[in-house]
Predict the 3D structure of the following.
Amino acid sequence: MPRGHARSEASASRTTYAGVSMSHTHHAPPTGAPGPARGLAGRRAVGAGIAAAILAGLIAVRVTTSQGEFDLPDATQDFVTLSASVLIESLPFVFLGIGLSIAVRLWLPEDFLVRRLPRHPGIRRAVVSLLGVLLPVCECGNVPLARGLIVRGLSVGEAMTFLLAAPILNPVTIITTYQAFGWDDGILAARIAGGFVIANLVGWVFSRHPQPMSLLTPKFQAACAHEHAEGGRKSRRAAKMFAEETAAMLPALVVGSAIAGLIQVAVSRDLLVTLGQNPVLSVFALMVLAFVVSICSNVDAFFALALGSTFMPGAIVAFLVFGPMIDIKMLALLRTTFTTRTLVQLTAIVALASAALGLAVNVVA
Amino acid sequence: MWPRFLERWKGIALTLIGVVATLWLAFSGQLGLYIHPRYFLFTTIMAVIGGALAIVAMLLLPASGADEADHEHEHEGESEADASQRRRRPRGRRRALAGAWATVAILVGAGIALLALPPATLSAATAVQRDVERTTSDLANESPLLVGTDPSEFTFRDWALVVRQGGAAAELTTTDVSLVGFVMPAPDDPDDTFVLARFTITCCAVDAQPIGVPVHLPDWRERFSPDDWVDATGRFGADPAGGEGLVLLPTSLEVTDQPSEPYVY
């Protein structure tokens, strides 16, 4: 690597570099250092400067505006407050999930798990659906993981079981669902059991396909090759993963929070209560909502909580089971791996099963 | 070019916005406006970690030169279908541009909501929309009966619930009460009664439920407007206007500052 080279040259030289004071993490080479090394360290110094400037700018905005008197209309003000509360509540859990997922992807060898799976297909799928406990990745991070697993010998049906189960059957999701709902109305239990059953059902259905490889897009092999070739230092890869994961999740979270806030202030309470108290309509209404908002499974319980007082528990369960498996964002991600035809079938099965689960919970409740 | 730049940095930018907003709320003691106190420590710690990760990622991310090398690498393995896809450039570019503008809107919106607007509690208008009557009596039905316990220890929440749990037990009407809450119009908007309300939250502000006690004060609108914070002292008694249940008959009512913890738990 050119960096070590650069360092020895840096120590040989007596010139100091103007940007050093900004960067505490690296020995910046002197301005006279030749080649790519100078570019790299120089860029880092500039990067540190930009980072400091952006942070200072954000803090300055916050401090100067904090005393301001903005007389927003009540509805607008409450929309902002409600949306911000969903966002602030969810953000730490998103960071937790991203941190865990990066750690797993960097330090847990992927065949470590695949080699230890039982041979019987049904039991094997059941175990695969519990892998989310060890790989606490939210659905956005799952697709690359599942691709890696297929390459390492998992069948297409098993990969689907993992894709559908992992976002629900993972510690972060279970904790946030518990935080939001406790044991109320069996929402947590129904979510866990429903996620497990539906994922295994889908895995079983697709395992019976005569030519499972035809379910995958031609592009998939190329994508896998890329995944394999990913190299470089771990810290560098971690930085890239952090940027990618936050880029995938946070915009969806911001939009989801805004929609949650908007529903609270814009949709009349009467309509929400009428819709929410209907045992059948409430289930379908929240499934459509889950599909549209595409919020991460790690934090969707907080979103559902906003609706908890007006919607029947079965609708909440359908939201919490259907949303992590199928939504707009997830379909876009899955399209990189599966054919459209497969995705239509997948969506139909999951939607029917989630609706059945939601309706059943409503009947019991 | 800028759509790709944005695509690359939007996650880190949103992280920094969220982290600065969260930490500032934590240090200025206002996190309670949005989330339940049991999350304060966890939220603060994760915000520090998230912020640190974002800054480190900013410094380590391969800069543009390395990025292009990455990109060539991607195309090495691409299939015929991909290549033809890429040849349909204008459509792809238009879509990328639309996505980039959506990202700009999200960044600006998050910045305004989290950093530019001063933090605030929910307004009385939301309390009205959320139907204080129903939420208070729902909570009262779910909670253990408070009638018969010592009212001198009652919190705002206890008073709001015990009044709905019925029973005009003598100790309720002979205890001096002092309650702080915000003013909101009573459900049928009578001139002689308003509701002294607080929001109770179980998780974060989005699940806030208004609870409150009715206060008897003829022509209350001449002294207060909705959202005023009021310190009310008095005793509960039968509604002089003939309504059902107990109302607070105030001996003194004073406008006060919003408490530092506006919600009750």
Residues 2-116 of chain B form one domain. Chain B has two domains: 2-116, 124-255. Residues 64-83 of chain B have pLDDT under 50 and may be disordered.
